[in-house]
Amino acid sequence: MTDFLQRHPDGVVLAMDEMSLYFQATLTRVWCPIGQSPIVRISPDRDHLHYYGALNLRTGQEIALSLPALSSDHTLHFLDHILTCLPTQPILLLLDRAPWHTAKDVQQFLTAHPRLDFVFFPPACPDLNPQEHVWKQARQEVSHNHTFPLFPALCKAFRAFLDHTLFSFHWLDQYIPPSFCQFVFG
After folding, report:
1. CB 61 within 8 Å of CB 44
2. What is the pTM of this model?
3. CA distance 159 to 142
4. How confident is the model at residue 183 (pLDDT cuts 50, 70, 90)?
5. From CA 132, how far away is CA 15, in angstroms rounded?
6. Superfamily classification of domain 2-21+46-185
7. Closest Cα to residue 48, out of 79, 26, 17, 80?
8. pLDDT tens-digit profile of 128-182?
């Protein structure tokens, strides 16, 4: 990563991942007045939507896109979306080893676009991926114990949270020496 930042001081470092949002509420602990049990609406519907996300590690901004499936075709669509959102900057993409990331057509796409450089996280290390922390925070704020009566309302709230929240995650500080960060980021 330091090689990328030395070559491209104006480069963008993105951590990418996917998640599935289900209409069925996920439960978590909540505070409530003594003697009152919290009520969470449970729907028998299995409606769901998949989200692709890429967190800009320098700014905390999220690039997100909802897609109907997790596949190499949809990964290609999201990568093209990233290139459209960041039309001129060199991009270092950090991603896990999901089958749709390591598919031949995705690897060819990454190789064919010289603005895109990529690095895979080690296998079975989701906590290293900052995008996982974005999903966790979004679920805590929007979908845990939710009371949305319709799935589109939940999706709209989830997307609004992603679009209007800066996710400060000091990931770079953990893996790049402070002196180098000062040199590159000013």
Report:
1. no
2. 0.81
3. 10
4. very low
5. 9
6. Ribonuclease H-like superfamily/Ribonuclease H (3.30.420.10)
7. 26
8. 899 999 999 999 888 877 778 888 999 999 999 999 999 986 655 665 555 544 4
